[in-house]
Design a protein that fits this description.
By secondary structure, the chain is of the alpha/beta class. The chain has one domain (5-227, 253-263): Rossmann fold. It is 29% helix and 22% strand. It has eight helices and eleven strands. It has helices at 17-26, 36-41, 68-87, 97-105, 167-175, 187-191, 234-243, 255-263, and strands at 5-10, 30-35, 51-54, 91-95, 121-123, 131-139, 151-158, 162-164, 179-184, 205-209, 215-218. It has a nine-stranded mixed β-sheet with strand order 2-1-3-4-11-10-9-6-7. Strands 5-8 form a two-stranded antiparallel ribbon. Strand 10 and strand 11 (215-218) form a beta hairpin. Helix 3 crosses helix 4. The longest helix is centred in the first third of the chain and has 20 residues, at 68-87. It is globular. 45% of the residues are buried. This is Phosphoribosylformylglycinamidine synthase I. InterPro entries: Class_I_gatase-like (IPR029062), PRibForGlyAmidine_synth_PurQ (IPR010075). It comes from Candidatus Roizmanbacteria bacterium CG09_land_8_20_14_0_10_41_9. GO terms for molecular function: ATP binding; hydrolase activity; phosphoribosylformylglycinamidine synthase activity. Keywords: ATP-binding, Cytoplasm, Glutamine amidotransferase, Hydrolase, Ligase, Nucleotide-binding, Purine biosynthesis.
Length: 266
């Protein structure tokens, strides 16, 4: 079958588009980076893609809140195309700033496919600081993005990643099983002597989906963990593999997420 086509959005401070494109291509897709202004000029560009990725960065310098201005630009100029895209059998991922954009755009969690209304938020870290480190995640639902994954370790890099929702919304997220991943203390956090939750996220939530499972928003960066040598403790792991006479893996844990998306269309 033909390789799925991926659109990776760019512009106005998104800055992880190259890594995201590379990860998708390494996983067997055809990926293109498209500036938001080019989409506004020619919205029909959307029609050729099966996967949309909104990468990390600092769109508009996080002015007026992380992801807010970029989400407004998408909603004001491309909402009809975006809504049509997500209502079809398509996949969408928002990573870090991309997650913030999807939340502000109202694509997550979008109960009962009510797209367009913001229902949750990603607030300043409880440390009031920009945080860069690795985290361990426990996968909580059956989104195709996380197929065959039970736990995973990935890096984070954000200042506004603290997931927040009202008690009513949180209850609905749990009832409908839309929490995709939670921060837990496993191999990486233990190795680095770090707490599980890096930002004070409500209920330890690191990622959520819509009810279809096809739209995923996550704070950690899988595109920064696609090779074995991306792991913070890879020298230790290397010695363990060699002493046990095992071959060294080439790829890191994050690549599986992109492979899952590609496999969805094959």
């Amino acid at each position: 079958m033909a390789k799925p086509n991926v659109i990776v959005l760019s512009g106005y401070g998104l800055n992880c588009e190259e890594e995201t494109k590379f990860a998708f291509e390494l996983s067997g897709s055809k990926a293109e980076i498209i500036h938001i202004n080019d989409l506004i000029q020619k919205p029909s560009i959307f029609d050729k893609y099966q996967i949309m990725a909104v990468p990390g960065g600092f769109a508009y310098g996080d002015d007026t809140g992380s992801g807010n201005a970029y989400a407004n630009k998408l909603k004001n100029h491309l909402w009809e195309k975006i809504e049509n895209f997500v209502r079809k059998d398509r996949l969408v991922i928002g990573i870090c700033n991309g997650f913030q954009i999807l939340v502000n755009l109202g694509l997550l969690p979008a109960f009962d496919k009510n797209y367009g209304n913001r229902q949750v938020a990603l607030l300043h870290n409880n440390s009031a600081r920009y945080t860069v480190r690795w985290v361990d995640l426990k996968i909580e639902n059956n989104t195709p993005w996380f197929a065959h994954i039970k736990t995973i370790s990935l890096p984070i890099a954000h200042g506004e990643g603290r997931f927040f929702a009202t008690s009513e919304i949180l209850s609905k997220l749990k009832k409908k099983k839309l929490v995709a991943a939670r921060y837990v203390k496993r191999e990486i956090c233990t190795y680095q002597s770090l707490p599980a939750n890096p930002n004070g996220a409500l209920d330890g939530i690191a990622a959520i989906t819509d009810e279809s499972g096809r739209i995923l928003g996550m704070m950690p960066h899988p595109e920064r963990a696609i090779f074995f040598t991306h792991l913070p403790h890879w020298p230790l792991l290397k010695e363990q593999y060699l002493r046990n006479k095992k071959s060294l893996p080439k790829f890191g844990p994050g690549l599986q997420i992109f492979k899952n998306a590609v496999s969805y269309f094959l």
